[in-house]
Specification:
single chain, 230 residues, alpha/beta, 6-stranded mixed β-sheet, two-stranded antiparallel ribbon, binds zinc ion
């Protein structure tokens, strides 16, 4: 099944550049008062922001930027040592007011569309599962989206991204944990914020920025998953 997608072109894009390879998929929430304000901003030339897709709460999907073009969604970001995240990624904005304007559950219709859309994207590009991440994963000091209510576990069950088994290994030492976060791909320049970003994605029930046993076990499991699969 393919997603039904309507075109709603944003002027905010440019060329990816010679030799660019698309190997990342970044999920966002819009984080604005409502969908109209968010959509207007993503299409406002003076705002200079955009994404490839926009998924409404009723499940409808708009395409704002062609996948071959570079959309402007990640900003200053870093993943697995790369800074040029917009050049190498597809960006999907999922409508939700976000932490600033009343964070709420993503709707069932929305998640169904996100899953179909992500599967479509993954069928067109060689994107490793470990490179399917949230905005907060690639910009942990600045961003919280799509946040702890986003059901990454369900996505992984559909073959989108990685969900870790909990490891038996319980490593609570801060330097080891920081090393694990780096192995996964995080920029660990701010440890508590990076740990929060990890928790928002992989341990949404407890986002503290502090090491606890559940976090340590899941992070160890994630390291194992990303180092044993492509
Ligand atoms: Zn974002």
């Amino acid at each position: 099944m393919s997603a039904t997608i309507r075109q709603h072109t944003s002027p905010n894009f440019d060329e990816r550049g010679d030799g660019a390879v698309i190997d990342m998929l970044i999920l966002h929430y819009t984080g604005m008062e409502n969908r109209d304000v968010a959509l207007a901003r993503l299409c406002d030339e003076t705002a200079e922001v955009s994404a490839h897709y926009f998924v409404d709460e009723d499940g409808s999907v708009l395409q704002l930027v062609d996948e071959e073009k570079r959309a402007w969604h990640a900003g200053v970001a870093r993943w697995r040592g790369h800074n040029n995240i917009n050049q190498r990624s597809i960006g999907i904005e999922v409508v939700n007011p976000g932490h600033e304007f009343g964070y709420r559950d993503f709707t069932e219709a929305q998640m169904n569309s996100v899953i179909v859309l992500c599967k479509d994207v993954l069928s067109r590009h060689a994107i490793p599962a470990r490179n399917v991440v949230g905005h907060s994963d690639v910009a942990p000091t600045r961003k919280s989206d799509p946040g702890e209510l986003f059901d990454w576990h369900r996505l992984a069950g559909e073959g989108i991204g990685v969900w870790p088994e909990e490891s038996e290994v319980l490593e609570m030492d801060r330097d080891v944990v920081a090393g694990h976060l780096e192995t996964v791909g995080y920029d660990v320049s701010d440890f508590p914020k990076t740990l929060r970003a990890f928790q928002r994605h992989y341990r949404g029930e407890r986002v503290t920025g502090r090491i606890d046993a559940g976090t340590a076990r899941r992070l160890s499991g994630l390291v194992k998953a990303v180092t044993t699969t492509p």
